[in-house]
Amino acid sequence: MIAALVNHLWQSTLFCGGAWLITLALRANGAALRHWVWLLASLKFLVPFSLLFYVGSYIGLPAARTADIPPLMLGDALQSVSLLVSPSALGATATGAGSIALVILLAVWLGGALLVGTRWLLAWRAADSLVRAARPAPGALPDARITDADIEPAVARVFHPVVLLPAALLGRLSQREIDAVLAHEREHIARHDNLKDSVHRLVETLFWFHPAVWWIGRQMIEERERACDEAVLEVGHDGGDYASGILAVCRHCSAGVAGTATATSGNLTQRVRYILGDGRPAALGAVKAISLMVATIAATTVPMFAGAVDGTTHRLELLAMNSRALGTAEFFISPTVNNLDSRHQVVAGRDGVVIRNTSLRDLIALSYGVERWQVRGNGQWLDSLRYDIRVVTRDPVSEPDELDPYALRDLTAKLLATRFDLQIHVNRQCQSPCGRYARAANPTQ
User: Fold this and answer.
1) Which of 99, 106, 196, 227 sits 20 to 30 Å CA-CA off 284?
2) pTM listed for this prediction
3) Angle formed by the axes of helices 409-420 and 286-327, to 10°?
């Protein structure tokens, strides 16, 4: 477990470093895009690469179901990716001393998580109490409310968010300054910033011990405030009025509200310089847009593809081993005693396989890897008689719970030929094993 956690942490740290490099390349572009990059870096802590690897391994690759093809190999690079993101460390067994250390570490983590989570909960409850005590702002939209608390303008609540405006501030700002500050707060609502902040607070609660998590949080705050500033200026508010409104908030409001998006969050000096400056974010451009899209897709698909390759390779190797073991096995046939239950079952164990309540139609479908309904024919001989077949192998069956029924194809084909004299002709050629000829070649069967 410790090894798996360490594996996940360094992968997430590396991902965070990659996000930082991407934001450097996007520093001349819009802050909203950089904020999304940091949010993805935060979400990475909640989604281990090993989980994506497992999903890919479960899905697998479209591959021929044949034990004759060699294991799928896509080069050393892809094998390295599999080693980096595979969840194999999850099966490590801890020693006695390791178990004690694990308990201690778990207790320390739980204490830190409870502390961070409690602070988050208290901040949320304080903000919600302010909303409940606030009153609608006269002449404003329903999402704005007046509070008597000495706070900065802020957006509270994740769902159905509202803008809190301190009553003491309204008489000290001009209407244009108030409109600009309100536009900033409403941009937080439009961008769902409180929801994104809550997701990152969950990451901070779970990974409070990781410095990169807190650094990501600071970067998200800086970029979200810059994004709102860009949006306020984009809709036509005067930079001078906007900057003076923010400075007036700093002069007349004593404190912000924890757990909310406030008007003076982020680096205030840099924000005012940007608001009063002439520079505006550049367009993303085709090259950066395509590169960003490719990087985002690769971050998800590479671990999944590596898992798919690994899972498919394992399944093919398992199919080859079990096909060899079952191909030389002995089989014993007996009529089904009670065939009221028409279900056909294949039950595998380490010592062999039992095929219960099977018909010739079932055996043909099993032998040729098709569905039962694809075996055409209405003769009673296909369905009326049912059999129990016990298969005893010389070599043990590998991972019997994961046995692919297609591994039985050689066995069932030989059984159909030697015991039922079944002949399969393709282009007028009888396919081996071929009915009575197979019996003559295998007189002991």
Assistant:
1) 196
2) 0.71
3) 40
